[in-house]
Amino acid sequence: MPHSDLDALAAALDDRARADALNGVVSIDVDGAPVFAQAYGLADRAHVVPNTVDTRFGMASASKAFTALAAMALVEDGALQLDTPVRSILGRDLPTIDDGVTIEHLLSHTSGIGDYLDEEADWEVDDYVLTVPVHELAQTEAFVRAVDGHAQKSAPGERFAYNNGGYIVLAIIAERVSGLGFHELVGERVLVPAGMERSGYLRLDELPGDAAIGYVYEEPDSLRSNVLHLPVRGNGDGGAFTTAPDLSRFWRALADGAVLPESSVAELWRPRHTDASEGLRYGLGFWLDLDGPGIVLEGYDAGVSIRSRFDPGTRTTVTIVANTSEGAWGVITAYSDALAG
């Protein structure tokens, strides 16, 4: 977009954010140079702490990209291949997973495995859906119990079906292959080389003062946080925290080959499937414009709503994030409408 168009976009998104009483941040930059960055609402309602453009927000499923990058780093090392059968690493664990499921099936949401947080099930964002006590879900191996016992739903490679459990399985595999804890692996292979100094997997029950509390409901007088709705510490399928500036660094680091060789990034960004319900395509760990150059991260969970889009040609990053379940979607819709033109 020409700079004048970006100014118009910023004005439109700012208007929608204010109309929606957004709790979050809207950020636009070109190759790291800020065009627009504005924070709205409160990071902590009870103590009236405002959000800032540097506030750390939950990412929900947007951090699946970190898992994909960590897995691809192990492919680069030769410790894994995209066609590695997951059974060769899981052994007797998770016996309901089909023997034909590969690393690429998990990355592309085509494994067909049963999902512990089934996106096709009828549940609301404020439901308590975890069957393992949330305080026990702090380390990767603890999730084995959560993802165990779910019957295979379709044959490997048969169809695209967004699958949270598949990314937990990827984290389990990454730990066992690398010998590092998943959070440590992501830190070493993704966050540090990307220069994301203020990103990581924070515990929901001990958030630092610069992190936004995730609120389940939009009403400004509701203090219901997401601490009982989500694992106490995020893992392979989501739950990292980041800032809008860190996300800009992330996109540019990927484009510049600072995290993985550009050929590996291109493989992650190569479209595999179209999801008509999302109006997007999917690669490996990343959403892609349905018809356009943009690479997209998206997350939706109790107390979290986020989309970050990067145009590799113009190196423009637009990030819209809220510390409420639904808060960002109106602004995201306004941005999608502007892109459609």
Automatic annotation (TrEMBL):
It comes from the Bacteria. It is found in: Membrane. InterPro entries: AmpC-like, Beta-lactam-related, Beta-lactam/transpept-like. Keywords: Membrane. Residues 21-328 form the Beta-lactamase-related domain. Its main location: membrane. PANTHER family: D-ALANYL-D-ALANINE-CARBOXYPEPTIDASE/ENDOPEPTIDASE AMPH, PENICILLIN-BINDING PROTEIN 4. This is Beta-lactamase family protein. The lineage of its organism: Bacteria, Bacillati, Actinomycetota, Actinomycetes, Micrococcales.
